[in-house]
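Review form for a predicted model. The reviewer records the input and the model, then writes brief findings.
Reviewer: anonymous (R2)
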Amino acid sequence: MTHARRIGVTAVAVLAALAGSPGLAQAQQPPGTTTSAASDSGLPPGWRVSGEGATRELVWRSERTVPMGDARVEFHAGGRLLGVPKAAGDGRTFRLALDRAAPLKDLRVLAAGRRLDAPADGSGPSAGNSLAAARPPAAPPANPVDPGKPGAYRTVTGEYDLDPVKLPGFAQPVEMQAVVVAPKGATGKRPLALFLHGRHGTCYKPGGDDATGDWPCPAGLKPVPSYKGYLQDQKLLASQGYVTVSISANGINGQDWAAEDGGAQARSSLVRQHLARWAGWADRPGDAPAVVRGAPKADLSRVLLVGHSRGGEGVNRAAMDSLYPAPAAQDGYRGPVRWKIRGTVLIGPTIFGQNPVADVPSTTILPGCDGDVSDLQGEVYADGTRGISKGAALHSAVYVVGANHNFFNTEWTPGKSEAPSFDDFWDDPEGERDPVCSAGTRTRLTADQQHKAGATYIAASARLFVGGDDRVRPLLDGTGRRAPSADPARVLTHAVGARRTGGLLPDSGVKVTGGKLCAAIDPDPAKACLREDAGGTSPHFAWWVTEKEAGRGAVALKWSAPGTAAKVTPTKPLSLSGAKNLALRVFVPPNTTGTKLDVSVTDSAGRRARLGQVKVDGLPGTERTASYWAREVRVPLTAATRGGFDLKHVKSLELTPRSRSGQAWLMDAWGWAPGTPAVRAAALPRVDIGRLRVKEGDSGTRTYHIPVKVSGHGSGKVRFSVLDPESGRAVDKLVTVRPGSTPVDVPVVVKGDTRFGYDQQHDLVAKAVRGAVVGSYLGGVVAENDDPAPEVTLTPVTDKVTEGGTLTWRLSLSAPADVDIWQPARVLPVTEGAELSTKDVDPQWLMDYSGDAPDPERPLSQANLWVWTQIPAGSTTAQFVVPTVKDQVAEPVESVRLALTDDNAEPLPGHPAQTGTVTDAP
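Model under review:
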């Protein structure tokens, strides 16, 4: 089977393209193929497959530069993750090794749920782009205590630069560089706040416009000083008495593209390497760098970690590893833990593993106009802790309307940075401005406004988690108070944990009438909470690994008239004893206002109490924002205390719409009381999945087992999902895990042979459900092909014909392969005599194979003929044909010259070109 590019026709499977060689067409793969080819619809524009045999790669080239950022660029096909490609130096080309069989249907490039290979189609509701979307929410009342105000101390700033460290899985050492800002004249030990930046460009040329992802930086380039981007935040905390340090992680950013966890474990190791140094300097001040010796002694029992983007996932992992040690083979720090992490602040964070640390308090800042981690997956740092441990730690989600991803770091902000920087929220390529997030709209913050708001809420978290000042809790826990220092930013919060009790969670055991229990992640629109055409996305439903996911959902309500109640009944009655209010997290469509819901509860004896009414407004949003985000609303439990209502046995919850029509989604409901309890981390088991790479061998079968390690203490529930290597579909199993046990046995049978094929990858993923933590969430067995690709030769079958005949060549393999082999061939200029022209061949063949018409007449070698031929799996031959046409023009003997090429259209050495000749018909 043979095909070449037909220009303008996208329903053709593109197999490879010749980049940078004008005049040569992209080679094509025909419809109807299997294994690593598209089956019907073909590869879309911009996609190709390059290389041969074991070096084959799936390549996507963007129409514009894709800046290096924190969201992971991923290739998806048919709703499953194919892999994480490597970015080329041009910032536009991405390559993924095709080392395993995978059908390439419905190819997509995604980054945090945002599609990069297709423009927005505007299919969302028209309200998403209306001017009404630009109305900011009303300002809540001011909190009596404002943590954004500078403290009494002046500050001192300096840097240290230590010997780099070697981290597992990284070829190049990683720098140990940091900037310190400390209070001047403070006495006694002072709490320590450590900042970790995210994934940004690593190197730049002064005066240039671009940053690269190299490490170490080549000659003539300087490291991007991302670690200096939080000086404003550091100075605010230092003025309030904190010692602060912001560390550099360019060495990880330049090497983490191949890490299965996106570099989370490496960043954790780097954080703990720095903390270990600070612990040592506290004991031996004379060994410390000058800036540390000049600062107050750091109190390592009171540590706050602040991470931006992938730095957020890194500090979350550092908190985990400090409580529940990682396996030594994957960890870059193996010394004692001589510190205590009191809380984390996560700014626009990634969470590829969806594995938050339940027993360390956290604040997650969600930028409403994030153009990098645009799905706001960091919401999982709150949602994902529910039911995992004791629930005493407060986990706050802070939604900042109009904030982008980059401007929390001044070194990522145009006009403030040393290196090139940019606004990550991009305007539509066609020039259409976003009414919520484009610069200059009523809801979009300036860089200074955004950074000031970020600094304020970092300080609020420090004051609550480290300082224990409960007066700032209403800024973080959904109470609905604002810090005037953050004005004019509109900042909204909700939370889980702290003194919340009796959680009603929409899981598989819940019974719902008058609404429906919907799934956060499910390809079936009838089951999914949000359809693809919803006009925006929800941070609560951020995609993970599997195409559908058990245990994550919401209660969906939809009504066309008021008065019909949705009743939610958990598997067993809940206790709200000791609670002051019932707190609900509810969201409604963006840009809607005035949704009213009556709230009632019923106890096990059938007594019903109407608690009150809540009003919920939607966030400003468009189809490009993740604005389906829950607002926390509360109703007093006063009514339930009358008439003998049993708050210890609440059987059901009812929500009755009082608006004329609308939609709403209930995320959860809790008994709420003020206060911040002390947090003590539970002794939990930790699960880590390993990756085993084996050779297939030449004969026989061998059985391998996916390595799963359980360490720590106690027992807990973990959901394991085995991914089918062909379809990507998951088979789930809920397992009780205990240290030293093998909680799940996934055998992988590898059959040896001597035929070329692709690697076979068998994956296992894990997520904590109750009483456990998961470190390395993804692993498996890769059976590596160890057989060389067969040699291809080109020989003539019919190389001399008269006009109207068909020239034919045979492509032959030296041995059959277990996968399709695609071999390109190119028509070259003849070396002597007359060349066959575009009017000497069948015009439809010419159009199908090159996209060119016969006119104007020209030599065939100038007609974009670079053609790929398929030799199906198990076969050893295929044919390449050139059908000629009979005309009435007297012509000399004409010829055409054909050569096998590499994927750059260069003739293969040692494979001489073949010539075919055509003579006039008698």
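Findings: The two ends are 32 Å apart (CA to CA).
Further findings: The first helix runs from residue 231 to 239.
Recommendation: see findings above.
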